[in-house]
Amino acid sequence: MMNFQIRKFYYGDIPDSNSGGDPIDAGSEIPPLGGGGAWPLWEVFIRSKQGLDHKHVGSLKAADAQMAIENARDVYTRRMEGVSIWVVESKYIHASNPDEAESLYDPANDKVYRHPTFYDLPDEVKHM
After folding, report:
1. Which of the 8 DSSP states describes residue 98?
2. Virtual torsion, Cα 8, 11, 60, 34, nearest 10 deg
3. Tens digit of each residue's pLDDT (9 = 90 or more) over 23-40
4. Is residue 103 part of a domain?
5. 40-82: per-residue pLDDT in tens?
6. What distance in Å separates the CA atoms of residue 25 and residue 64, rounded to the nearest whole number?
7. Beta bridge pairs of residue 59
8. How far apart are CA 95 and CA 93, in angstroms?
9. Buried b or exposed e, range 91-116, using 16+ CB within 10 angstroms
10. Which range of residues forms the domain containing residue 80?
11. What gap in Å lies between CA 33 and CA 62, rounded to an integer?
12. Any residues with CB less than 8 A from the CB of 102 and at least 6 apart, and which?
């Protein structure tokens, strides 16, 4: 009997051992949701129109990146709301701690030149 693995990489995947889900052995089935082989959580970002930025719209569980994109399309763009979908496995997102926000953002308050109140705008400049 011949053993081999099929490994898919999609645009944007990080080629490491856990990127885009686990490798799929030929003849193996996708693990069921819940239980021991739980699917990873993916964060979904949608760009509504060309030229705009991607916005976080929610999360979903999927076996790999392709399934996450397909599920995101079905769940978050049912009414043709998007032109682009990004999915990122949640374990690759690192965020600041909200409890440390004061010490993280406090140094910016010492630089008054960064605040728009420091500048006098001419009357000809509108909507600023």
Report:
1. G
2. 20
3. 555 555 555 555 556 899
4. no
5. 999 999 998 877 899 999 999 999 999 999 999 999 988 777 8
6. 14
7. 43
8. 7
9. eeeeeeeeeeeeeeeeeeeeeeeeee
10. 5-95
11. 9
12. none
- Domain tally, the chain: 1
Residue 127 included in any domain: no
Residues 68, 42 contacting (CB under 8 angstroms): yes
Q: Per the domain annotation, does 52 fall within a domain?
A: yes
Q: What is the DSSP letter of 104?
A: H
- d(C-alpha 5, C-alpha 83), whole Å: 33
Tokens of 69: 């994109």
At 3, which amino acid appears? N
What CATH number is attached to the domain comprising 30?
3.10.20.520
Residue linked to tokens 């999927």: 62
Instruction: Give CA–CA dist 42/5, Å, rounded.
Output: 24
Q: How far is CA 27 from CA 4, 33, 90, 116, in A?
A: 10, 19, 28, 62
Counted residue by residue, the chain has a size of 128
Indicate the helix (H) or strand (E) that contains 68.
helix 65-76
| SS3 (DSSP) at 121 | coil
